[in-house]
Design a protein that fits this description.
Elements (H helix, E strand, L loop, with lengths): L2 H26 L1 H4 L10 H6 L1 H22 L4 H24 L7 H25 L6
Helix pairs in contact: 1-4, 1-6, 5-6
Amino acid sequence: MNWKRFINAVIVGFVALFVMDLIIHVLILGEIYKPLAGTLLRSEADMNSKMWAYYIGAFFFTLLFVWIYTYGVKGKGVIEGFRYGIYIGLFYIVVGSFMCWPIFPIPGALLWLWILFGMIEMIILGLIVGAIYKPIKE
Protein backbone atom coordinates (compact mmCIF):
# COMPACT_ATOMS: atom_id res chain seq x y z
CA MET A 1 0.00 0.00 0.00
CA ASN A 2 1.15 3.51 -0.81
CA TRP A 3 0.44 5.08 2.59
CA LYS A 4 1.33 8.65 1.63
CA ARG A 5 -1.10 8.66 -1.28
CA PHE A 6 -3.69 6.77 0.78
CA ILE A 7 -3.63 9.44 3.49
CA ASN A 8 -3.69 12.22 0.89
CA ALA A 9 -6.68 10.61 -0.86
CA VAL A 10 -8.56 10.31 2.46
CA ILE A 11 -7.90 13.94 3.41
CA VAL A 12 -8.74 15.40 -0.01
CA GLY A 13 -11.71 13.05 -0.36
CA PHE A 14 -13.08 14.02 3.06
CA VAL A 15 -12.84 17.74 2.27
CA ALA A 16 -14.41 17.19 -1.16
CA LEU A 17 -17.25 15.13 0.35
CA PHE A 18 -17.93 17.88 2.91
CA VAL A 19 -17.95 20.61 0.23
CA MET A 20 -20.16 18.58 -2.11
CA ASP A 21 -22.61 17.79 0.71
CA LEU A 22 -22.73 21.48 1.60
CA ILE A 23 -23.44 22.46 -2.00
CA ILE A 24 -26.01 19.72 -2.54
CA HIS A 25 -27.90 19.70 0.76
CA VAL A 26 -27.67 23.37 1.76
CA LEU A 27 -27.47 25.36 -1.46
CA ILE A 28 -29.33 23.15 -3.96
CA LEU A 29 -31.81 21.16 -1.83
CA GLY A 30 -32.10 23.54 1.14
CA GLU A 31 -35.42 25.02 0.05
CA ILE A 32 -36.88 21.55 -0.54
CA TYR A 33 -35.88 20.53 3.00
CA LYS A 34 -37.48 23.56 4.71
CA PRO A 35 -41.05 22.15 4.89
CA LEU A 36 -39.61 18.94 6.38
CA ALA A 37 -37.73 20.72 9.21
CA GLY A 38 -39.04 19.92 12.67
CA THR A 39 -41.09 16.99 11.37
CA LEU A 40 -39.09 14.51 9.32
CA LEU A 41 -35.86 16.48 9.66
CA ARG A 42 -34.39 17.99 12.80
CA SER A 43 -34.65 21.72 13.32
CA GLU A 44 -31.62 23.67 12.10
CA ALA A 45 -30.43 24.34 15.66
CA ASP A 46 -30.81 20.68 16.65
CA MET A 47 -29.07 19.57 13.47
CA ASN A 48 -26.17 21.96 14.02
CA SER A 49 -25.67 20.67 17.58
CA LYS A 50 -25.23 17.13 16.25
CA MET A 51 -22.96 17.85 13.27
CA TRP A 52 -20.06 16.15 15.05
CA ALA A 53 -21.75 12.86 14.11
CA TYR A 54 -21.76 13.89 10.42
CA TYR A 55 -18.01 14.61 10.55
CA ILE A 56 -17.26 11.22 12.13
CA GLY A 57 -19.49 9.40 9.63
CA ALA A 58 -18.10 11.30 6.63
CA PHE A 59 -14.53 10.62 7.74
CA PHE A 60 -15.10 6.88 8.14
CA PHE A 61 -17.04 6.73 4.86
CA THR A 62 -14.14 8.39 3.05
CA LEU A 63 -11.58 6.19 4.82
CA LEU A 64 -13.46 3.04 3.76
CA PHE A 65 -14.10 4.40 0.27
CA VAL A 66 -10.37 4.88 -0.29
CA TRP A 67 -9.37 1.67 1.53
CA ILE A 68 -11.69 -0.50 -0.60
CA TYR A 69 -10.43 1.27 -3.74
CA THR A 70 -6.83 0.36 -2.86
CA TYR A 71 -7.63 -3.36 -2.88
CA GLY A 72 -8.89 -3.39 -6.44
CA VAL A 73 -6.74 -0.68 -8.00
CA LYS A 74 -5.22 -1.66 -11.32
CA GLY A 75 -3.34 1.59 -11.90
CA LYS A 76 -5.76 3.07 -14.45
CA GLY A 77 -6.17 6.35 -12.57
CA VAL A 78 -9.24 8.50 -13.09
CA ILE A 79 -10.92 6.04 -15.46
CA GLU A 80 -10.78 3.41 -12.75
CA GLY A 81 -11.93 5.98 -10.18
CA PHE A 82 -14.90 6.89 -12.36
CA ARG A 83 -15.99 3.28 -12.63
CA TYR A 84 -15.47 2.74 -8.89
CA GLY A 85 -17.57 5.84 -8.12
CA ILE A 86 -20.41 4.41 -10.21
CA TYR A 87 -20.22 1.06 -8.40
CA ILE A 88 -20.22 2.63 -4.94
CA GLY A 89 -22.97 5.03 -5.98
CA LEU A 90 -25.17 2.18 -7.15
CA PHE A 91 -24.46 0.16 -4.03
CA TYR A 92 -24.72 2.97 -1.47
CA ILE A 93 -26.82 5.77 -2.96
CA VAL A 94 -29.35 4.02 -5.19
CA VAL A 95 -29.94 1.01 -2.95
CA GLY A 96 -29.95 3.11 0.24
CA SER A 97 -32.33 5.71 -1.18
CA PHE A 98 -34.83 3.12 -2.37
CA MET A 99 -34.66 1.30 0.97
CA CYS A 100 -35.29 4.54 2.93
CA TRP A 101 -38.09 5.90 0.75
CA PRO A 102 -40.86 3.60 2.04
CA ILE A 103 -39.85 4.38 5.64
CA PHE A 104 -39.39 8.16 5.53
CA PRO A 105 -42.24 10.24 4.12
CA ILE A 106 -40.21 12.22 1.62
CA PRO A 107 -41.57 13.36 -1.73
CA GLY A 108 -40.73 11.09 -4.66
CA ALA A 109 -39.02 13.99 -6.41
CA LEU A 110 -36.61 14.30 -3.47
CA LEU A 111 -35.78 10.59 -3.76
CA TRP A 112 -34.73 11.10 -7.40
CA LEU A 113 -32.74 14.23 -6.52
CA TRP A 114 -30.90 12.28 -3.79
CA ILE A 115 -30.08 9.57 -6.32
CA LEU A 116 -28.98 12.03 -9.02
CA PHE A 117 -26.80 14.19 -6.78
CA GLY A 118 -25.55 11.20 -4.79
CA MET A 119 -24.38 9.44 -7.95
CA ILE A 120 -22.63 12.61 -9.14
CA GLU A 121 -20.99 12.93 -5.72
CA MET A 122 -19.72 9.33 -5.70
CA ILE A 123 -18.39 9.65 -9.26
CA ILE A 124 -16.53 12.85 -8.36
CA LEU A 125 -15.15 11.21 -5.22
CA GLY A 126 -14.04 8.23 -7.31
CA LEU A 127 -12.33 10.54 -9.81
CA ILE A 128 -10.49 12.29 -6.97
CA VAL A 129 -9.33 9.04 -5.41
CA GLY A 130 -8.37 7.62 -8.82
CA ALA A 131 -6.28 10.72 -9.54
CA ILE A 132 -4.50 10.70 -6.17
CA TYR A 133 -3.98 7.06 -5.22
CA LYS A 134 -1.38 5.11 -7.16
CA PRO A 135 -0.01 1.81 -5.88
CA ILE A 136 3.70 1.46 -5.20
CA LYS A 137 5.45 -0.08 -8.20
CA GLU A 138 6.97 -3.45 -7.38
